[in-house]
Amino acid sequence: MLESIHAPTGDERGLILLRPRVFQLMMAFRQTGPVATEAGGVLIGSLRGPHIEVIDCTQPMQNDLRRSHAFDRRDAGHVAAIHAAMKGSAGTIGYVGEWHTHPEPVPSPSGQDSANWRNLVRQTKHSLAFVILGTDGLFMNSLDERGKGSAGWKLCFPESCNEVLRKNPTINLTP
Ligand SMILES: [Zn+2]
């Protein structure tokens, strides 16, 4: 059984908690092959005080735009999944963020990613968590409703850690 993955929220008062199920759903879309395209979806869970608990996520759907270096969540099924979660939980579970993949070992957000994320927190008016899944690790961050957050946290997958450290002796890895 995998442990939950967690990282501090942007303001560092709380934690982003990623349940093992979410991690497992995402890992199926790691861009390990040469023709792989980016994948993504929404994060579903609860805002618990300063913490963001992610308990589920959607996966790429038919009408999403998927390219080797781009993902645009266009399918209405993602929002439908959020509404279903809200309805089934009397509003305690809902939209808490976004995830997508990058074709790089330990990913960093692009300028477009950061701009999209700031727009999303302004629209939702509450904190959101953001996850980018790379081939050897992941990036996590959260932004508050004003678009403020930390620089984010990078983690590498256990089986890739030695390789990542060898290639990036100065990389900032957070346990
Ligand atoms: Zn990106």
UniProtKB/TrEMBL annotation:
Q: List UniProt keywords, sorted A-Z.
A: Hydrolase, Metal-binding, Metalloprotease, Protease, Zinc
- Domain (JAB): residue spans on this chain: 36-135
Domain of life according to the entry = Bacteria
Which InterPro entries does this UniProt record tie to the protein? JAB_dom_prok
Organism, by scientific name, is Magnetospirillum sulfuroxidans
Gene3D superfamilies reported in the protein's UniProt record: Cytidine Deaminase, domain 2
Q: What is the lineage of its organism?
A: Bacteria, Pseudomonadati, Pseudomonadota, Alphaproteobacteria, Rhodospirillales
User: This protein is called what?
Assistant: Mov34/MPN/PAD-1 family protein
